[in-house]
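Would you be willing to look carefully at the protein I have copied below?

:::
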Amino acid sequence: MSSVKLRKLLFRKSLPWLALAAFGAAALPASAAVFVQCPGDTNGDAVPEAGGDPSVVCKHLTAGDGFATMADGRVLYTFGFADVTGVPPDQAIGAGILAANTPGPTIELQEGNKFYLTLTNVGMAMRPDLFDPHTVHFHGFPQAAPVFDGMPEGSFGVNMGSSLTYFYNVAEPGTFLYHCHMEATEHMQMGMLGQLYVRPAQDGTAKTYNGRNYTRFVYNDGDGSTGYDKSYALQLSSFDHAYHELHLGVQPLPFANMKDTYAMINGRGYPDTVNPAPLPAPADNGGIESQKIGSLITLDRATEGEKLLLRLTNLSITRYFTVGALGLPMKVVGSGAHIARGPGGKDLYYDTSSVTLGGGESTDVIIDTAGVPAGTYFLYTSNLNYLSNYDQDFGGMMTEIVIQ
């Protein structure tokens, strides 16, 4: 039996006793330690029954560990989130073990939603010596209630075997992100990152801008100037493979010497970025797919001049990244989940050939394809040392934009 399978077996056998030790036998419900709060949900699977409040959105995530495969074939140990929405509560912990996604599941909301997000900590199957708590930090959420902010200074972590439901009154649109904020340097380096964006209330209304009609918008612009035809969320991140391997080996972690060796878009390096399907499950991961989000960008133009929206975020804890799309015009219409407008309402949109994002930053970029010939274009980092998969060139932080 491999060491991975042995650890997983031992973890499954020890989980009930670890939970009892942490919470006490009297504190545990007879059926499950998972508790989901979701108005209109009658069976605890985080899915409201039909006929309820349409503004209520619920999601159930687990926090645990798993594995991810780099574009050169190296398999790295990771931490991460998994989506178990729709899973009965007595099956959620089992579904979340070794199910960490890289990156975490994308969260898409609408302005005006009442969002209930339950986080269940399923523990670390490969590191049963760890009892790390986890949180969800909705990065950039305006005026967050401290108890729901996920910051350990003003809130608390979700302990192993327990659940917490966060509540957010989603009042502002834009491109956000989320991550674990407990032992943030370690947990974010290990992969506890995700994409989150909020569509504006203006969505669904028809507006004409420069002779084009739009029903989808980045912000409540009032005039249709942030209208687009198709959108993609692209999260920039990077891993230090030595850190991940030492973690699995239960060795001291090199915080001061952290040097990322794999730069990725949506948890993949090129050419895996242009594979639209989930990547095959890593070996010894129980058949669980962990890298489900590709970043191939395609636009089948029904009419000339359609617009692409790129929701760009960076959650690397060690690097700024500059990305550009060679041969394509880029217009920045917002950043930090705010429209690019001055106090008097003046547009501050600007044209550029590249954008630079530090850790925790987001930028909304519109690419107007009017006059752009059909073909394959590349979105890539100008940090040339990150156009590689560790020691293999022609990879890393790059993907393709295919215009037909």
In short: The two ends are 50 Å apart (CA to CA).
